[in-house]
């Protein structure tokens, strides 16, 4: 897929690992990938697990790569870009997976002579079931977008949105797995409270979430339609739903997304937030 293009990663954390795993599963060779990671233990893990070239120096990777995935924390991005210098980014395609940092800020920090695709992936990419939204900068081409989308299609599903919607994407799918994990934990806790062994309660809760999501995606039905099919008059499900409504379940979830989206917007402001 890379067609002779060397793809570099600045940052070798969980999301970078997920993308690397997907690329290798999709037929990209380890020789086409290189990653810069400051932690020696993490570099060793990436080398041993995936057979890729992992280095400590960002500059070496930036110089060697034709395209770069920027996978550092947004709080350290501007310092990293300044330390590397704008010349390192000239003419390169930069694929950013940083929350909150706008395409304009990336172009400014990297000298303006780069093409930028901004992506918000999520951690289920680690099991090749991620959800990623992409937007492109004015200097990025159709081929750049096709290239970047091809990468993230290997670790899940993708969609293209306007950049103004990326904070909302962050609140929904970027942070969303944590909400789902909390829901599964709570569902499991409730099962234990009602007498189920912990392993059974957790397995039932997780499979219920997985199966429900798959049912929704494969049928294309509105969530309300599928909910109605589970809800019998005077039955157990309507009793549970009534309790969720009394406790403002939907409002609580919406408020969580609002908070995450607001924090994403804060991360993009200058100076960087902590």
TrEMBL record:
Residues annotated as binding NADP(+): 10-15, 71-74
Key words, A-Z: Amino-acid biosynthesis, Cytoplasm, NADP, Oxidoreductase, Proline biosynthesis
PROSITE patterns: P5CR
Residue span(s) of domain Pyrroline-5-carboxylate reductase dimerisation: 163-267
GO molecular function, one term: pyrroline-5-carboxylate reductase activity
Major localization class: cytoplasm
Pathway in which the depicted protein is active: Amino-acid biosynthesis; L-proline biosynthesis; L-proline from L-glutamate 5-semialdehyde: step 1/1
The enzyme's E.C. designation: 1.5.1.2
Cellular compartments annotated: Cytoplasm
Residues given in the record as NADPH binding sites: 58
Any single Gene Ontology cellular-component annotation: cytoplasm
InterPro entries per record: 6-PGluconate_DH-like_C_sf, NAD(P)-bd_dom_sf, P5C_Rdtase_cat_N, P5CR-like_CS, P5CR_dimer, Pyrroline-COOH_reductase
Xref: Pfam families: F420_oxidored (PF03807), P5CR_dimer (PF14748)
GO biological process, one term: L-proline biosynthetic process
Domain Pyrroline-5-carboxylate reductase catalytic N-terminal, chain residue ranges per copy: 6-100
Reactions that this protein is recorded to catalyse: L-proline + NADP(+) = (S)-1-pyrroline-5-carboxylate + NADPH + 2 H(+); L-proline + NAD(+) = (S)-1-pyrroline-5-carboxylate + NADH + 2 H(+)
Family the entry assigns: Belongs to the pyrroline-5-carboxylate reductase family.
Function: Catalyzes the reduction of 1-pyrroline-5-carboxylate (PCA) to L-proline.
Protein name: Pyrroline-5-carboxylate reductase
